[in-house]
Design goal:
The protein is mainly β. Helices cover 9% and strands 42% of the residues. A hairpin with a 2-residue loop joins strand 2 and strand 3. The site of zinc ion has 9 residues, from loops.
């Protein structure tokens, strides 16, 4: 049985729209990343797919309803870069990311992202609170994101236009969360107010 790329639930048959999350089963559509005091939530359409909770120095990404672990996110900072790995349940790296912190107050943040199998390479550009773009190696826009209106920790509105199947449905949440956490290492240097503040759930 096929699974929906957006929410990961089994598709009863070939349908235009997933009966669980309401998105296209290929994973394109509108998502939300919402922060609260416990961590972060990942919604496909209006359906909660995954949650991320801090566990010592690691973030655990769990299935929203069964709470089984899907991925772990670990980061370290070195000389103006933040390197993050998304580990699968067997603790093997599935995706690695390197975030280059901005060289000046108005410079965008760039990140290089690749899956461990080498099948997908992407670049992320974060330029102010509304300009998050993820671009694949063909130059196509994979995802665009913007900070939600509202108080600290409100989250991101995300539109996936070209789903990367190797990152669906949980990996893309991990990539976006890694970006927020990389931003939080700039604590005290509030370079991108809209996105930076999202990394500190209130
Ligand atoms: Zn679905």
């Amino acid at each position: 049985m096929e699974s929906c790329s957006a929410c990961g639930l089994p598709l009863p048959n070939t349908s235009q729209t997933c009966p669980f999350c309401g998105l296209s089963p290929d994973g394109s559509g509108s998502y939300q990343l919402i922060g609260d005091k416990d961590g972060f939530h990942w919604l496909a359409g209006e359906t909660e797919v995954a949650i991320a909770v801090p566990l010592d120095d690691v973030w655990q990404i769990r299935h929203a309803s069964t709470h089984t672990s899907q991925f772990y996110l670990i980061s370290h900072q070195l000389e103006g870069k933040v390197s993050t790995a998304l580990l699968n349940r067997a603790l093997q790296p599935s995706t690695t990311m390197v975030f280059n912190l901005p060289s000046s107050k108005h410079a965008p943040v760039f990140a290089r992202i690749q899956t461990a199998d080498g099948r997908s390479r992407m670049a992320m550009k974060v330029d102010g609170p509304t300009g998050l773009h993820l671009i694949d190696s063909s130059g196509d826009v994979v995802l665009i994101g913007s900070a939600k209106n509202g108080p600290i920790g409100s989250g991101l509105d995300v539109l996936i236009v070209k789903p990367i199947q190797t990152l669906m449905p949980y990996g893309i949440f991990g990539v976006l969360l890694a970006m927020l956490l990389a931003q939080s290492t700039l604590e005290g240097r509030n370079i991108h107010p809209g996105i930076d503040t999202l990394s500190k759930p209130s």
